[in-house]
Amino acid sequence: MKRSYQYGFSERGLGMYDVRARERKARTMVAVIGDYMARPLNGMSLLNVGGSTGIIDNYLADHFGSVCGIDIDEPAIRHAQKSYNKTNLRFLVGDALNLEFAPNTFDVVICSHIYEHVTDPQRMMDQIFRVLKPGGVCYFAAGNRLMLNEPHYNLPLLSALPRAIAHLYIRAAGKAKFYYEKHLTYWGLRRLTQRFELHDFTAEIVRRPKAYGVDYMIRPHTAKAAVAKLIVEYFRWLSPGYIWLLEKPEAEPRKLFTSG
Q: Model confidence over 3-50: pLDDT tens digits?
């Protein structure tokens, strides 16, 4: 199967209109970015790549100076434009692989569980790098191919299987004709983001779930919390997902040339 754009993704019933769940994600974004950045968020410009129905962007607009949400999903963007109206908030139909913004435009870019949906994740990350200001950060939330359960289809081990077998599996389960999403392993994600300076918040979030607004998923003093801490401390490559801040260096490293 040739992978093309996933138009109309919000209409697949995967929670894009779930206000409570989406706002929970937004709270974590604000907590992580605010914890790292040395200046007030309300003076920063933010781009959300793949913002979908606008729920997250609407929340972020209460914390950042300006927010722009883009998505190729036209019904989702129409919903966002109709539902949310703030002076520092706008929504555009846009392509993550061809961001129509000048270089060095945004202080912050959100890229939350988007890479597996696009046809060329490396091109998307290069576009994000281009539009970020030097010293700006990308909030990058990403799933691991080695996760036990694939969240889009709720099928165990789906993402870890070879593509041909995954297609048969998802069809036999009656979930879809093909398995479109393409996840990477921890090492693949590191390669994908290698142009950036990586600040890994995953372990800190697991250690302090309440501070980052994820205690609804990782309840302190439970067996699940203990297992999560063990994994992120000693077996990070097995973590089902990651939250990274990817910082654009103030200056690109010079290329070294050798003669002969």
A: 888 888 888 877 899 999 999 999 999 999 999 998 999 999 999 999
pLDDT tens-digit map of 86-106: 999 999 999 999 999 999 999
Which stretches within the chain are classed as H helix? 19-36, 55-60, 74-83, 121-131, 163-172, 186-192, 202-207, 223-234
Gap between the Cα atoms of 80 and 77, Å rounded:
5
The rounded distance, in Å, linking the Cα atoms of 29 and 214 is: 11
Count CA atoms closer than 13 A to 71's CA, side-chain side: 31
The string of DSSP letters for 15-41 reads STT-HHHHHHHHHHHHHHHHHH-SS-G
According to the model, what pLDDT value does residue 4 have?
A: 85
Rounded Cα distance, 54 and 91, in Å = 8
> How do strand 66-71 and strand 45-49 relate by DSSP bridges?
parallel
> CA-to-CA distance for 104 and 129, rounded, in angstroms?
8
Count Cβ atoms below 10 Å from residue 27 Cβ, excluding itself: 16
Query: By percentage, how much of the chain surpasses pLDDT 70?
Result: 95
